[in-house]
Amino acid sequence: MADIVIERVIDDVSMLKALADPIRMTLLDLTMGQPDRTWTARELAAQVGVLPTNVYYHLNMLERHELLQVRDTRVVNGIIEKHYGAGQYSVTFHRRAGDGGDETRELVLQAIDKVRDDIHDGLKMESMTMSPDAPDSERMMVSTGLVHIPEDQIAGFRAELIQMVTRYERASRNACRFTVMVAIYPS
């Protein structure tokens, strides 16, 4: 088994295209959410709601770009069954606005839509709340703020955000899991 990369930097158009699909993004989220687990195509297909025969194309594309790893194979009824796992703990996108064009926009919008859907579902199922009286493990926070950063400190601000997220990504896999979406963009 290849080592899992701590942070995969997505910085080329071909990899953006590989991720510019909601099924592939969901597959990536599932495997990165449980990086030590392995999944069969059948298990992943059931999680994303597609037929196993339809998920192979997506798995192969993610595997080609090393976003998924084949960690084990077994022969089941004469057929080789692959067991997939995440190729990284986190993914960071580094593209200039004009690079990747539609793929970059689509990827960003998919990420925002997924967070919105997760929050909607969590509030609907009452598995999360914004109440300050709720236990920390159930409490969500959504905040938007405008900050003023001197130009010579912008890179440092970004680096501190990434460092903080990375510190908690590496924390115990038995800890409470939270999705974190950090956005910093010029206003």
TrEMBL record:
Q: Which SMART domains match?
A: HTH_ARSR
Q: Provide any one GO MF term from the record.
A: DNA-binding transcription factor activity
Q: Please, which domain of life does this record's source organism belong to?
A: Bacteria
Q: Which Gene3D superfamilies did the record assign?
A: Winged helix-like DNA-binding domain superfamily/Winged helix DNA-binding domain
Q: Report domain HTH arsR-type positions.
A: 14-113
Name the record gives this protein: HTH arsR-type domain-containing protein
